[in-house]
Amino acid sequence: MARFNHAGRGEIDAPTDGGLAFGGTPAVTFGTSYVAGVASTLLRTDDTIKFPSALMSTVSGETLTLTDIGSDQLLTGSVGILTITPATGITLAFPASTAGSLIVKPDTVTAATTLASFQGRPVAGTRTLIDPNWFGASASDVFTSQTFKCWNAAFSSWIAGQITGCTIVAYDANPFTIAPSASSGADNKAYVYRAPSFTINNANGSFAEVATAFFTGAERVVASYKADVLAGVIVECPTGCNKKQDGTTDVDQIGILVRQKTAEGTAPTNRVGLDIVAQNTGTNRYSIRALTDSAYLGGLLLDDSAKVKFGTGRDAELYYDGTDFVCDPDVVGGGSFDIRGPIKVDSVTNDTGLAAGVYTPTRSAEANMDANVTMTEAQYLRVGNTVTVSGRFTADPTLTATATSFEITLPVASNIGAVEDLAGVAFCGTIAGMGAEIIGVVANDTAVVQWVASDITSKTWSFTFSYQAI
């Protein structure tokens, strides 16, 4: 029976027929189906209820069960995909402990092909699918020998399993397809990977290396293995575009483009587009190897004695030794420097090869002469060790039928070992039959012109001789 007291508060009398009771001990049971209740009891304000561990669907009776597994909890759905639709978003606030982490772990037997999929909808405003972002540290925080990562593709434990014809990729963009609709404009840009701004914003600390990307070469730690190619980076030249935006000029298709940024701060002494340090192992060590295609280069700078080598067996070399420019065509085996066309030089001087020039011989040791012999400028040509000389002189013998002679110097010094090491002739064009022989002088390393005079007038002669530069 219900009634109101003088204070206006409602009161309920205890039932006398058992139809209505205050409180009682609640049953600790869990339902397996839903049904309307019929009990006539009320709960006390200090009653404790143990709720069931499963939430049940009102449509199919499927459950979402929360249980504990030792020190952790497990939430398990009984059918299909568990979809959570928040009002605005979801924030996972991890506790201040070393166990605070998010792990997406597949079933050990029936895992899906793709473990996690993040889907975006640009029409709805999505511009970035995943945005990992470090909180900034304070100036008083201290870090020593730490490695900080935003992404870490770990294959360290994936060490077993029988593989054949498989492709194993740490990071993969597959596929990355862009198909603009009609009326799209120009000046778009597309990158599979981009790091547009990488800056160190003050002068504190120093760095042994700073780079936008670091790719370490593949390594297999066994003595013998099979691999067609081992590389730090493999770059394929792009295809499928042959016009620039203006539609008029062929566009270059480039595997790697090294483009200089706008200069900032103090310009360095060396700004290098591609820097390759010396290889530390290998029978043949190459900085760049282009086996078939031509190399199109601008200026090429080489240090002293740095050699450009030619031939499969490295048979020839071209280099500057700090003083001379050296071409060695027979480093391995035989070979010569074969010029298939004209050659033009300002001057030629060398040890044993090719030389040419003019000189005025010095005369000496004159015999049967009224006056000193007059020499004009002569010319010479050297090919290998053979020197050929030609010129003119004027001589005035004293007596006829008398041995007449004089010596002249050589344009290229030689150690005359025998008279026949030098030989030639001289003739006077105005006296019939008067000629002279020219031979070497061993004692003086000179040439001697000698004849039996048949005329004692002053006459001009022409001469030529050859000798070995020894």
> What is the CATH top level name of the domain at 354-468?
Mainly Beta
Order of helices and strands: EEEEEEEEEEEEEEEEEEEE
Low-confidence stretches: 1-10
Number of strands: 20
Report the span from N to C terminus: 146 Å
Structural class: mainly beta
Tell me, rounded to a whole number, the average pLDDT: 84
Describe the protein's architecture and organization.
The protein has strands at 2-4, 10-12, 21-22, 41-42, 54-56, 63-69, 72-77, 308-310, 316-320, 325-328, 354-359, 363-367, 374-375, 378-383, 386-395, 403-408, 422-428, 435-441, 446-452, 459-468. The protein is mainly β and 470 residues long. Among the domains are: 302-337, no CATH class; 354-468, Adenovirus Type 5 Fiber Protein (Receptor Binding Domain) (Sandwich). Strands 11, 12, 13, 14, 15, 16, 17, 18, 19 and 20 form a 10-stranded antiparallel beta sheet that branches. Strand 9 and strand 10 (325-328) form a beta hairpin. It starts with a strand and ends with a strand.
